[in-house]
Design brief:
Chain lengths: ~200, ~200
DNA sequence: TAACCTAGAGAACGCACGTTCTCCACGCCA
DNA sequence: TGGCGTGGAGAACGTGCGTTCTCTAGGTTA
């Protein structure tokens, strides 16, 4: 088996096991068994468990945000897109294997001891925040491309600051919905967060 | 040293160490050293590490909610009380030793493997939710005692349901503020959540 | 005073797990 | 065909840690 497919299989196994049961509860030997990759190759691809965890988080970040963005753009236009984020969250919470935010879980497990993991989590959350800001910008300028939006934002610093503030509030709502759903085990927090977002958008 | 003071010292040491560095990163021997309690006595008070963790969470729950309630009632009256929750959060986030929500951290570490820990976390979150609902009820009926409020709530099921929905939204905001503050390391999410809460209260 | 119970200190045990090492089989090149 | 390098399987190693055991000292009671 070559290095490329080994890496893919390892990340697949890592994602499935780490997300379902937690990082510390899964040993490297179990990753090996689930992936079908030899231990020697495993340590060639990822010289330590920490690096495997970081790899798992980085790839999950890409896929997670891809899935969100795809769902939002195909499902809604304009101001509705922000609300579509919470609809997507509700679907995610309703999936059988939902176990909360992989990044928060990993942060709770390793954030205090592993700076690399903490950085991966921070990066993910920053990207989500950026995405929400983008959605609001596109909402305000539905007919312009990204470049034009940024020019406009520069020209109107006050509006940009307000968008940024709103994006922060939406981010807090999304974050809270994820953790509350994880702990209570129900998808309802997505609905509550959506209702709150709706109110914030309506009355800003 | 008698059992009572031993238990207190153990919980003190456990809270300090577990909260600062995580449960898994702290060994029982370190708890023993920090508390000055012998290992034998430790296992008399808490027959397993899991039970020590649960004890730590239960006592922290009491203290945390006491501190919140005390701050809210001394600082504000009526509708302002809900916003005072977020002011208290901001102060908490600004403390030097802030490391996020002890319950979420423990849930991320042990929730998947320890039902007892998961239950303690769920109980804490449910209590907070209840507290927020209480605040909203007292807000609407500032001059009546609890019993009267409940009678009123029964008589007006629609209003009670709306209060409950609002409480859920506030809960999501608080939860999101805590996790975002923990990951970004800044107290700003408390301000964002407060602004959102203000908007929700104003336009309901 | 002598037997006995308790408590503390710390060694010891067992296990899990991250990481490395050893051995062997298989394919490639002279 | 015969050496040789690569890769896989799994044993082995070291360590950390939850838990238990042992030994000793001191206090209490008959």
């Amino acid at each position: 088996m070559d290095q490329r497919t080994a890496t893919t299989r390892l990340l697949d196994a890592a994602e499935e096991l780490f997300y379902a049961r937690g990082v510390q509860a899964v040993g490297m030997d179990e990753i090996r068994a689930a992936s079908g990759v030899s231990l020697k190759r495993l340590y060639q691809c990822f010289p330590s468990k920490e690096q495997l965890v970081v790899g798992y988080l980085r790839r999950r970040d890409e896929r997670w945000r891809d899935s969100l963005a795809r769902s939002v753009t195909t499902r809604a236009r304009g101001a509705e897109q922000v609300l579509a984020v919470f609809d997507w969250l509700h679907e995610w919470f309703s999936e059988p294997g939902f176990h909360g935010c992989a990044f928060l879980n990993s942060f709770g497990e390793l954030g205090a001891t592993s700076p690399a993991v903490a950085a991966a989590v921070r990066d993910h959350k920053a990207e989500v925040q950026r995405y929400l800001t983008t959605l609001l910008t596109d909402t305000d300028e539905p007919r312009t491309d990204r470049k034009a939006s940024e020019r406009k934002a520069l020209a109107e610093p006050k509006a940009a600051a307000e968008r940024e503030a709103l994006a922060e509030q939406l981010n807090v709502l999304a974050e809270g919905a994820i953790t509350t759903a994880a702990i209570t085990g129900t998808p309802a927090p997505a609905r509550h967060a959506r209702a709150a977002a709706e109110a914030l958008l309506a009355h800003r």
